[in-house]
Each structure stands twice: as structure tokens, then as C-alpha cells.
Amino acid sequence: MMGSRQLEYFRAVARELHFTRAAETLQIAQPALSQQIRKLERQLGITLFERNNHRVELTPAGAALLEHAERILSDIAAVEDEMRGWAEGTRGRIRLGGARGLTARLARLLAEFSEEFPAVDVELREMNTEEMVAGLGGGRLDAATVVRMPPQEEGRRLESLPLGEEPLVLITSVSAPLAGRYRVPVAALDGIDLVCYSPGSVIREIVLSALAAAGATARIRFETREYSTARAMASVGLAAAVVPRSVAEEPGQPVSVVRLDPEPHLGAVPRLARRTPPEPSAGRVHRLRRPPSGPRLDRTLTARLAAQAQPSVMPVPAGRGGALSAADAGGESRRQGWTVNKQEI
């Protein structure tokens, strides 16, 4: 059976039409090259080169074989290059689960990631923590940004890297009684209508714990599983909502953003979890921890891990409250190599 090495030898002679120069190109001895060509001719049962003392020429059959050899060897090189990319993690697919409210900030990092690794497709799916952990454990996700890792998963099937914290803020309509305030105590939420999140939500637990610690009673008027729904209800005055600050800064109807004292935080946001051991391309997901190229970094959202920071967000103006309708940077939802699939949380 004819092999790729024989085709390489044949192609070298066919290009040079000179056995000695072809042997030098291949870095083999000329007699060994001549022997390989004669062996190939015997295998095929046909003469590929006309040889005399002065010149070497391709026969018609040799010219036909050269066309095939060029194509076959080019295809082999392309396959080797592609497989090398898969092995080195510069080609492939990353199925990434994103926590609610985080995808706007992930967009900029994903854009930079796609520029650096254009052959790695990133599929981003918005999920809650339970869905992401289940997706990681079941092999449906390669990595995820989760709020809280189940203790039984740490160091066993999943590897996690804490990347920082995000403050929770109160949002109201621009005409609400607390609108325009820069900061209010958590106790000020006593008796105020709130949009809260469904049972099992980490945000719900944090909000209710903060209210209880302040001696305030939660007056939950609406429950939702969507940050966008909570923000929409707050913007029209149906109820106030406590949301991650990145959610308050998303484009949409204006809301008044008020800081809380003490300020509750969505701890360890995000935690970059991935299956162990990861696929080669998924091993590149740690590059999402790099800071963007822009100069802005918000102090409260700076995550330090290996001297690297989380991306910036538009800060709430210091010293005053007010309406916020931010066209947040990083709102690119379609970039080369990655897609967004929103799911209800």
C-alpha cells in the first residue's frame, strides 16, 4: 500500500526533476531516495520518471500522480494542523454556563478570547447555580461561573477559582420615596414592597438574611426568576428590588440606584468552575480571567487572582443617587466564535 512518505519522496523528485537535489531537500541519501522511487514504481506497476544521463522527466502517469500527491499531502498537513490545534486547546468548543447578570461583563472577555482563539467556539448559556453544577457534573458544560460551589464537588469532579465579589444594590423607580438617595440602611426596607426571587435563589437568601439581620420584615409582593423582570417592575414603581449592580446597569428603563448599608455582596462572583480534567480547549477558559484592554477598573468589582482583575463596569456616581440607564460596554451579544442561549433561572 502506498504511504504518505512515498508520496513525499515522489513529490520532491517531481518538483526538482533531479534526484540529488531532491535528496538534499528531504535530507536523505540519494541512493535511498532512488530505491524508494523504484519501489513505488513497482507497487504501481508503471514508470513515473524518464531517466537518462542528462535529465529526469515525469511520464504522463507521473504527472497525473503528482496532482494527486499535492492534494493528498496538503490534506494530510491540514488534518495534522487541525488535530494539533485540538490537542493544544487552540481549536475546539467551550460550553460555558453564565450566572444571571454576569453575561454583560463576560461579553467583553469573550470578545477578546475569540480574537485570541478564533478557532475555539464558545457557547454561552445563562443558568442558575443548580443548573450549572448539574451541567458540569453531567458533562453538558465544560466550565461555568457559579455563585456557590457545593462542598461535595470541590476538588472531586470540579475545579473552581474564586474571582471576586459583586455588591447588591437597591433599585426603585425614579419617583419612589428612596429615589435620589445615595445610601440607605438595610432597615429602611422594612415594610417596602419588594420584588424577590424564587425559593432556592442565592440572591433571595442573601436579601432575606440581610433584612433579618437589620430587624426588617420582608414584604414580598412579587416573585420572579428573572433579574430583568425584577428590574422592569422596579422601574415602573410596582416594587423595589435588590439586584447585583451589573443588573442595575444594564440598558433599559431608567431606575434609581441606591446603595445599602451594610452592603450585601454576592460572594465569590464569579467562581470559574470546570470539569477535571478539562478538555484541551476548555483548559483555555482560564484566559477569561484576564482584564480587558480598557483602562477602567471599578474598585468594588475588582477580582484579584494571580494579579489579574475582573472587567470594569460603569460605576454609580459617588456622593449622590439618581436615575441610571446605562448603555453598558461589553453589550456585544454576537461575536465570532460564541453564541448566547438565555435560559430562565
Automatic annotation (TrEMBL):
GO terms for molecular function: DNA binding; DNA-binding transcription factor activity. It holds the Pfam family HTH_1. Residues 336-345 have a biased composition (Polar residues). Keywords: DNA-binding, Transcription, Transcription regulation. GO terms for cellular component: protein-DNA complex. InterPro entries: LysR_HTH_N (IPR000847), LysR_subst-bd (IPR005119), WH-like_DNA-bd_sf (IPR036388), WH_DNA-bd_sf (IPR036390). Residues 2-59 form the HTH lysR-type domain. Residues 271-297, 310-345 are annotated as: Disordered. PROSITE patterns: HTH_LYSR. Belongs to the LysR transcriptional regulatory family. This is DNA-binding transcriptional LysR family regulator. It comes from Actinomadura luteofluorescens.
